[in-house]
Write a structure and sequence with these properties.
alpha/beta; Rossmann fold; 3-stranded mixed sheet
Length: about 280
Amino acid sequence: MLASYFPKPDNPLMGNWALDQAAALVRNGIELEVVSLTSWVPRLLGLTKGARAYAECPAVFDWPGGVRVSYPRWLLYQKGPTRRWAERNPRLPMFLGWLSARRWLTKKVLAFRPDVLYAHHTAVNGYIAARIQQSTGLPFVITDHDFGEIASCEILPNRRKLFQYVVDRSSTMVTIAARMDANMRLLFPSARTRLVYNGTDPIPEDILSQPRPAELRDKLVIFSCGTFYERKGFPLLIEAFAAVADKHPTAVLRIIGDGEQRAEVMDAIRSRGLESRVSC
């Protein structure tokens, strides 16, 4: 399993759904090796919490559920201007990243001898799986999770070429929504897609059986949870709620999360006078 967006000991919320998936595979008797390629950050440069999670990440870590994860370092960085340039011209940075990790990955594959490679996201891990497939013949499957990563191929020709390289070599491209599946087929007619909807764990009955607090008893409660960064669109959620709030006076919005856009989220609530209707 190749998943660069995967929890790290100092950042357990990063891609925790991928950890849940890995644990489910183990529970179902799959012999699993997880590899989370990790950008190399010198310890002296680990000044922020995010950078420190990379700089101090161990080479190997055992997560609950019997999931052992290797975190090999490689020379691929997807932050700030570097990320924006790489989105438009991904082949060179990914090839350099592949060169920096090729020896380690080749040794891992030869030692573990997997039957199939499973990668999250066509870029980056799908590209790595395609490179491994070229040298070993191992089949690989990809699950994509981001609509934007696929849709951007329509306007970014170099990105589309990289996706086509991976699509042509994959055994299956798993999509998580009908719209994503249709978009993938439109942009890449040769793609062998399979639609598998994302799921979630059921809410425990002991939580559902608890009565609502008195202040919410007659309210229509809208709940959203996530990390506050641009792609999640929480300020847009607040705008959407503001547009319909007057028509639905019993509706309230409850948000749980944190992140780099917290100030923007709070400003959006205040600027629309929703302090009594939206809590965060």
